[in-house]
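In response to reviewer comment 3 from the previous cycle, which asked for concrete evidence that the modeling workflow produces usable outputs, we include below a single protein chain processed end to end. The sequence was submitted unchanged, and the resulting structure tokens are shown without manual editing.
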Amino acid sequence: MSKGKEDVIVFQQTDDQELIKKLWKVYLDSFADSDDYCAQDQLCYDEITLNEAMKDNDYWKFILLVEGEPIGFCLLTNNMRKARIAYCNDRFFTKKFPKFISEGRFYYVTAICVLPEMQKRGVGIKLLEEVCKFIYENKAMVSYDYSETKNPWLTQIIQRCGRKFAPNSEIFLGKQCYTSLYYDHNGVPD
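The workflow returned the following structure tokens.
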């Protein structure tokens, strides 16, 4: 698929099973290489829970289309219990940002993906811009997590996309590290 006409559709709910099946495939294909890069499982959803999220009004869906076909998407929710599917600690965010949470203006990205063959071609910028526009227009804030090993450039791109609307700032929330320990007398691990 070549870079072509990009559109982003935004909605809260769909029962379109054909679209949901395509998005499931985009999701799987987008994270196909995560077993090579990521100690933490990047697939928060299984087919059933993604289907449920697509039908759930508590999630905003941003679907990136190229020539009418889905090649990426982003899911946001301001329901912190539902954000837990992305392994976030809702209690931490409730304590850290109580005003935004109580006003429903805090969103968490539970999934964001673009097909690998479309990454690094600038196509995903449109998706990120639409998410930033949504956050800006709703006077909200958004948090997300990602694999720094797999996507070290993600925050820089998101900040650049957001500057299209206004200056923005980042609040560093923490870093999760995965480490292994072994003893030489056991031999070097494969």
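Residues 6-186 form a domain with the Aminopeptidase fold (CATH 3.40.630.30). We consider this sufficient to address the reviewer's concern, and the full set will be provided in the supplementary archive.
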